């Protein structure tokens, strides 16, 4: 495993641990608040008022977390799209180079071999189109 892969794995684990901690903290806070409210000796009006306040706070926290999740999701999608574009360009360049080599071989061989190279050229073009289509589908799914 390369150093870059190890760093990416460590970052992923840190994000996962942070997310688990955050979810645990929120659940703990909600359970603790509900327990404290239900066990406290208060009148019905006071209890309902406290429950409404806690519900409002929880709603605000949830909206904040939702916005954060949407932002991070968009960032990850953009990064994935950028990497896909880079990969598409690299495959395209390599395919072009391969196609140029085939064409140069085609010119230097006899007419019988030329017919075989034309078939190979057609196969290469077909594979290139299939690869491009697969990348476009992957990009569309992001």
From TrEMBL:
Chain spans, region Disordered: 98-125
First and last residue of the signal peptide: none
Family annotation (Pfam families): YtxH
Organism encoding this protein: Bacillus aquiflavi
Domain of life: Bacteria
InterPro entries named in the record: Desiccation-related_membrane, YtxH
Name of the protein in question: YtxH domain-containing protein
Keyword terms of this UniProt record: Membrane, Transmembrane, Transmembrane helix
